[in-house]
Amino acid sequence: MDALKCIDNKEIFTEILHLAIDYLIGNINDTKTLRSSHKYGFQNADEFLMVTRKMSSYFKDFSLVKSENLTPFFSFSPEMNRLVPIVLAARQLELTKYLEQSEYSKTENIVESFEWDTRLILGDSSFGGNIHQITTLKLCFSHLNPKSRLFFEMSNRKLNDLIYLLEDSMTE
Predict the structure, then answer these.
(1) Which of 5, 97, 133, 161 lies 20 to 30 A from 26 at CA?
(2) How many C-alpha atoms does 55 have within 13 Å on its Cβ side?
(3) 78: three-class secondary structure by DSSP
(4) Whole-angstrom Cα distance, residue 94 to residue 115?
(5) pLDDT tens track of the chain, all 172 residues?
């Protein structure tokens, strides 16, 4: 954290705090963090990564405890210390959502992303005029750490039924 005490530019300091939150919630990875170190004036990229990880850990611990009293960093100036709760308040909803999702994923499968592809079949070996559309849906989900994929192939009618079912489940 001593590396941040030499930063006297509020905008850069605020960007680093936001970057630490992005790192925590997974919007940015180690490689991107290392690449952006020189943008913020750090000569040592590994030191910047370490600072980002520590700040991320601090934000995570603070959000889990939900303490009203934010422990000030003694290595920061009072002016920079005032920016920490402002950034935390601005990103609190994202942090809360990430932490709740993280806790939920410890016991349940969570769909992280999905891909879809549509193919038009212009006949088959039995009948050349047999034209139909097939949609492939790939759901990527995780349970604890291993990631899994689930594939579906379905016709338009089945796809519409699935969409209706999902929409209906969201309204309940």
Answers:
(1) 5
(2) 29
(3) helix
(4) 24
(5) 566 767 778 898 899 999 999 999 988 899 999 998 888 888 888 988 998 998 898 888 877 766 555 565 656 777 888 888 888 889 989 898 888 888 877 777 777 788 888 888 777 777 766 777 888 888 887 765 567 788 888 888 888 898 888 888 878 6
CA angle 8, 74, 87 (to 5 degrees): 60
Helical packing angle, 10-25 and 45-65, nearest 10°: 70
Instruction: Give the strand pairing for 131-142 and 110-122.
Output: antiparallel
Q: Confirm if 136 and 117 have CB atoms less than 8 A apart.
A: yes
CB 48 within 8 A of CB 83: no
CA distances (Å), origin 137, targets 59, 101, 112, 117, 123: 36, 23, 14, 7, 22
Residue 166 DSSP SS3: helix
What region, left, alpha or beta, does residue 151 occupy, with left being phi > 0 and alpha being psi -120 to 50 degrees? beta
Predicted TM-score of the model (pTM): 0.66
